[in-house]
Amino acid sequence: MRIDIISVLPELIRSPFEASILKRAQQKGLAEVHLHNLKAFGLGKHRQVDDYSFGGNAGMVLRPEPLFDCIESLEKERAYDAIIYTTPDGKRFDQKVANQLSLKGNLMILCGHYKGIDQRVRDHFVTHEISIGDYVLSGGELAAAVIADALIRLIPGVLNDETSALTDSFQDNLLAPPVYTRPAEFRGMTVPEVLTSGHFKNIESWNHEQALTRTQERRPDLLEE
Ligand code: 6GU
């Protein structure tokens, strides 16, 4: 998987890709993340990328020319399977969307900024408009980093424990069960006996029961889907 992220503020999300799982995935050759500064395609001496919106609404809008130039220069190098625009008015991001997008080869993510990007860019290039939740961020960069993380960890070989992504919360519309590690007793608090029993079948059904109970209590909406 290759992800090209286009932003007016790429510095904001450099560090997530230079640490942790995301870094290891790139070192293993399983994922490539490239950050592009839209200002490199800005207009004139001042590398202008934004302008006032027609119609007089407050706030700046990213102009079409730098985005068209940037996107077309990338498209000249390779075909993209999806061009994602991060925006609060997009479709809500969830594990199902993450699973689908994780199967793609080349992805581009356009980070919205200010009041957004010129509608003509959306009409012409964008295949997926994604919001990461019902709240407003100051830019799409953090959303892009969230999306990239969620996709990359699903690529086979990225996680050490191959089954780990399969037992995540949401993978079967259930929240994950509680987890424990050593010591079996800590300050008088013990681990549920079944987990130390070594009885695989009982452990499995205990985990499933706990996942169901948790989901019923915390996210009953997931059980209705
Ligand atoms: Cl994708 N962008 C911005 N700016 N705010 C958001 C968002 C995206 N998703 C939720 N809030």
Structure overview:
By secondary structure, the chain is an alpha/beta fold. The protein folds into 2 domains: 2-152, Alpha/beta knot, CATH 3.40.1280.10; 169-224, tRNA(m1g37)methyltransferase, domain 2 (Trp Operon Repressor, Chain A, Orthogonal Bundle). It has helices at residues 20-27, 64-75, 95-101, 119-125, 141-152, 200-218, 220-224; strands at residues 2-7, 32-37, 50-52, 60-62, 82-92, 106-111, 128-131, 185-186, 189-190. The chain is elongated, with a radius of gyration of 21 Å. The structure holds 6-chloroguanine. Residues 86-88, 112, 130-133, 135-137, 139-140, 143 line the site of 6-chloroguanine.
The shape is elongated
- What would the average pLDDT be, to the nearest integer? 95
Number of structural domains: 2
Note the quaternary state here: single chain
* CATH arch. level architecture of the largest domain: 3-Layer(aba) Sandwich
How helical, in percent, are the residues?
A: 25-40%
Bound molecules: 6-chloroguanine
- By DSSP (H or I, 4+ residues per run), the number of helices equals 7
Radius of gyration: 21 Å
Q: Runs with pLDDT <50, length 5+? A: none
Overall strand count: 9
Structural class: alpha/beta
- State the separation between the terminal residues, measured CA to CA: 30 Å
Q: How much strand content do the residues show?
A: 15-25%
How does the major sheet shape up? 5 strands, parallel
Give, in order, the helices and strands: EHEEEHEHEHEHEEHH
What CATH calls the topology of the largest domain is: Alpha/beta knot
Looking across the biggest beta sheet, what order are the strands in? 2-1-6-5-7
